[in-house]
């Protein structure tokens, strides 16, 4: 596992893998966003981007071959923590996804070999379906914009320690998780939720699984970029809620979610550090 020195500059970095499932147009942007959170965490982290062994990306495979490890490599050297990004696959059932078998086989491996995994957006919906048979709900309109959330600080969870009682989080998705189905499962706990768009952060199996529906990693122009992209293509897209100042799409908002997003990743990295250096505590 990771090293045993406590100074950030000298300790062996935590090995955090990032399975990239985002489309090619935003791969490098997504890399930068997650690296920003991890590189500003209180303990040293080495982000390791990787992709599948068998499935080949139609648009990004050359980039992955040059810059990424494969699942086989990850299994050889192991990980302290893992992030699985979202994916633009909401038009498909899970079993229609070309890499579904390879994806779920890797999920099985993570259960025994990774201290904690963060699942983002599509990965949340896919994994909750696979592990708990909880089917995501397809909404009538896209859950799209910046939304106020309640943080359940009374839970005492280390993953939300230091957050504000109310926070803002971007969401961009058609599917969502039914709160009743989540709360009915004894292994799952909702830590952050919104009256408008439902659960945001769900923790499973005492921190081994962390499910995130929103996108705290987003830059301030990501939601607007998605809106204008679809609008310019003639796609019927609803205007993002609570995003454009005065509902004027010529104005972009202040970024109001990054600091609490960083707090979450600080807490998660600290939790990983404690797990992988448990002999010191």
Description:
The chain is α/β, with parallel strands linked by helices and about 280 residues long. About 30% of the residues lie in helices and about 25% in strands. The chain is built from 8 helices and 10 strands. A 10-stranded mixed beta sheet has the order 3-2-1-4-5-10-9-8-6-7. Strand 8 and strand 9 form a beta hairpin. The longest helix is centred in the last third of the chain and has 19 residues. The chain starts with 13 loop residues before the first strand and ends in a 5-residue tail after the last helix.
SSE topology:
Elements: E1 14-19, H1 27-39, E2 45-51, H2 61-67, E3 69-70, H3 71-77, E4 81-84, H4 100-113, E5 116-120, H5 122-132, E6 137-151, E7 166-176, H6 179-183, E8 188-194, E9 198-204, E10 209-212, H7 222-232, H8 258-276
Parallel strand pairs: 1-2, 1-4, 2-3, 4-5, 5-10
Antiparallel strand pairs: 6-7, 6-8, 8-9, 9-10
């Amino acid at each position: 596992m990771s090293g045993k020195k406590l100074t950030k500059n000298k300790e062996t970095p935590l090995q955090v893998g990032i399975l990239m499932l985002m489309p090619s147009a935003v791969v490098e942007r997504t890399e930068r966003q997650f690296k920003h959170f991890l590189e500003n965490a209180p303990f040293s982290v080495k982000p390791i981007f990787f992709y599948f062994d068998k499935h080949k990306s139609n648009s990004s495979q050359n980039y992955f071959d040059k810059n990424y490890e494969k699942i086989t490599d990850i299994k050889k050297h192991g990980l302290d923590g893992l992030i699985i990004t979202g994916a633009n696959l909401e038009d498909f059932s899970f079993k229609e996804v070309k890499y579904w078998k390879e994806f779920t086989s890797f999920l099985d491996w993570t259960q025994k070999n990774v201290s904690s995994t963060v699942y983002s957006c599509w990965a949340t919906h896919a994994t909750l379906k696979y592990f708990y048979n909880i089917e995501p709900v397809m909404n009538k309109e896209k859950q799209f914009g910046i939304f106020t959330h309640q943080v359940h600080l009374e839970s005492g969870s280390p993953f939300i320690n230091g957050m504000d009682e109310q926070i803002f989080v971007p969401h961009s998705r058609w599917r969502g998780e039914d709160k009743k189905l989540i709360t009915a499962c004894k292994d799952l706990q909702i830590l952050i939720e919104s009256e408008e768009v439902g659960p945001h952060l769900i923790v499973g199996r005492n921190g081994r699984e962390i499910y995130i529906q929103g996108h705290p990693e987003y830059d301030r122009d990501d939601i607007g970029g998605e809106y204008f992209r679809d609008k310019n293509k003639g796609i019927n897209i609803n205007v993002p809620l609570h995003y454009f100042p005065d509902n004027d799409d010529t104005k972009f908002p202040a970024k109001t979610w990054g600091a609490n997003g960083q707090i979450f990743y600080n807490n998660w990295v600290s939790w990983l550090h404690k797990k992988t250096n448990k002999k010191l505590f």
